Amino acid sequence: MLMHFLMNISSKSDLGPTGFIKMLTFIHDAIQNEQKEFMQKIFKNCMKLLCSMMRDNQLLSVQEWPLKCGGGTETTQNLIIIILKIFNIPFNQQIYDREVDEISAGLAKADIIYLTLNALKYLTTESIPIGITLISRLVFSAESSKQFAQ
Amino acid sequence: MTPNDFKESSKKHVIQAALEVLANVVKLGKCEDSNLDVTRSSSLPTLLISIVRNVVKSDVNVPDLMVDLIENISLLCKNSFNKQVGIEPIYMKGFIPLLPNLIKDPNEQLQLATLKALGTFSTQAAIIPIRMCNFFKDITENGVVKDVCEIFKSTPTNAVQPIHMVAIEALSTLSCPVYGDFYSFPWKRGPHDNILEYTEASLVYEKLRLSIFTCIKDFDFVGKAIAIFLKEDESKHVEVKCSILRFFIQLLRSFDNQPNGASSSKVEGVLDIFLSNPSLKQVLTQAAFSSKDAVIQAAAIQVLTLILRQVIDDQNLDQNVMVLDIQKVYLLFEKSSKTEPFISIMCCALMSEMLRQDQQQAAFILQKFSQPNSLQIIRDLIDIKLPKKGNISLVNGINFGCQHEGFYDHPISFFTHVAEQFFSDQRMSKERKQEFLQTVA
Question: Which residue in the set A14, A37, A68 is minimally distant from B407, CB to CB?
Answer without folding.
Answer: A14
